[in-house]
Amino acid sequence: MGLIIRSSAIHAAGCYTTTPIRKGTRVVEYTGRRISKELADARYEHSPITYLFGLGDGTMVIDGHGMAMFINHSCDANCETSEVRGRVWITAIKNIPAGAEITYDYCLYDGGEDEAICNCGAKKCRGSMYSKEEIRRRKRAAKKAALQAPKEHIKKHPAERKPGKRANEA
Ligand SMILES: [Zn+2]
User: pTM for this structure?
Assistant: First the structure.
């Protein structure tokens, strides 16, 4: 198996295979230092790009370093990730032809303000790199926030304003 990093149509750089990969094959390990979620939050608070992979219950993350950190997200991915005794493997879920880009579904969570818009180009693209559960959670949170918004915020909507005379013209 030969993996290479080169520019990708999905995003920046991507990981490609130079040889065919059979379904079920472990393609690459997601390597990198294990750090606490807290440390990762502090370290990357102002960083637009991170290569973090959440482990187990999410208290620890892998701070990606190696081939796997370049693998892009796709909503119709050819690989999936699995955690086996603290190690994360990227495994083929389809037969992958030589020259294809390696992808897996990021299923992002905990993205804060980031919209994590997806540009994978798949027919069934969900438009976001967040997991389906996270998309539902964020929608609920947005709805709740809208309901709790102060009334004066709603009143400021410009569409409701009619042009009126200024006081000194009356
Ligand atoms: Zn997508």
Answer: 0.80
